[in-house]
Each structure stands twice: as structure tokens, then as C-alpha cells.
Specification:
Layout: H1 17-21, H2 27-30, H3 39-57, H4 59-86, H5 90-95, H6 103-116, H7 120-130, H8 141-162, E1 172-174, E2 180-182
Antiparallel strand pairs: 1-2
Helix pairs in contact: 3-4, 3-6, 4-6, 4-8, 6-7, 6-8
Length: 183
């Protein structure tokens, strides 16, 4: 049985510490679309986790968690690589131009958002499963994306809690029908 495979050149989408240092900041966003290795499982897991976060927190919170987790973790990891290069690390210098594939950080941020949404076991298992892929110069992005995704959910929850609802009594919440009820 023949297996059909299709490959696309994603080199224009991927990112690296050197490319971002050279001002190609748009790559921080496009690299989140690139998958290293077999794409289907990573895309399916990310889609499933994203669906759960969107159901629990809403689309805006998922987008914020995903963007902050993906881009924030890359910037921090790239800064670590840059500092190591400045301190004379040959390994960091060699890694600075290596391609960085971002969908794993989209997944990491989404798992962090799930964790902070109360799905602690699922989030924690996902975090542990990402750790074996966190052992190179770009590896810190995985745990960082998880933490940043969780922080976004925490901040969003605090902002929602503090936002006054127009016309509502202090401490009132909307019930399932959209009516105000006082706690």
C-alpha cells in the first residue's frame, strides 16, 4: 500500500534567535504555524486542548494565552541564547540560527491555560509530556509557555471578577439566563 505524503517548505515561517535579533519579528507569530515532525498528533492535541480552553474561558482568553505563551516564551528563550552567546557559549552560538518550531509552545500555553482553568490533572500530564522536548537551547520555551498560558488565565479571571457589570448591584453576577443575581 502506497502512502502519500506531502511536505511544504516552511523555512519562511520558522523562527530563530538570530532571525529575531536581526529584526524579523514577524517570525515570532508565523512560527506558531510550523510543526516539526509528524504534524497530525500535535495539531490534533493542540486543537482539542484549545477547544477545551475556549469552552472554559472563551476565545479571547485562549488567543491571549496562546499568543503570550508562544511569543513570550520564544523571546525569553532567545534572550537566554543571546546572553549565553555573549558569554562565549559555542553551543548557544550554534543554536542561535537553528529553526524554532512554535506549535509545541502553542500547545504548552494552551495546556497551561487548561491547568489554570481547573483542569489540573490534564494540564499537569501535558506539562510532563512536554518536558522530554525541553532539553536543548530552545527547550525552556515549553515550560515557559505553560506558565505564561496559566498566568494569562489567572489575570483574565481577576480582571473579569473586578469589572463592574453596568446596571448590576455590587457583587451581582449573571445567572444562566443572563439576569443579574446578588450573591
Amino acid at each position: 500500500m502506497a502512502v502519500l505524503t506531502a511536505t511544504a517548505d516552511t523555512s519562511d515561517l520558522q523562527s530563530s534567535a538570530d532571525q529575531v535579533a536581526d529584526g524579523e519579528l514577524w517570525r515570532l507569530f508565523s512560527s506558531g504555524l510550523v510543526v516539526d515532525g509528524v504534524a497530525a498528533p500535535q495539531i490534533a492535541l493542540t486543537a482539542l486542548a484549545a477547544f477545551a480552553v475556549i469552552r472554559l474561558q472563551g476565545a479571547a482568553v485562549w488567543w491571549a494565552a496562546m499568543l503570550v505563551g508562544h511569543v513570550g516564551s520564544a523571546l525569553i528563550a532567545y534572550a537566554i541564547v543571546g546572553i549565553a552567546v555573549a558569554l562565549g557559549s559555542g553551543g548557544a552560538e550554534a543554536a542561535a540560527n537553528d529553526p524554532d518550531f512554535g506549535i509545541s509552545c502553542v500547545l504548552g500555553a494552551t495546556l497551561g491555560a487548561l491547568f489554570a482553568s481547573g483542569w489540573r490533572v490534564v494540564g499537569a500530564i501535558g506539562f510532563v509530556l512536554l518536558l522530554p522536548f525541553s532539553l536543548d537551547w530552545y527547550g525552556p520555551e515549553h515550560p515557559l509557555s505553560f506558565v505564561l498560558g496559566a498566568l494569562v488565565v489567572g489575570i483574565a479571571g481577576r480582571l473579569r471578577w473586578r469589572q463592574p457589570v453596568e446596571g448590576a448591584a455590587r457583587g451581582a453576577r449573571l445567572d444562566a439566563t443572563g439576569q443579574h443575581r446578588v450573591r
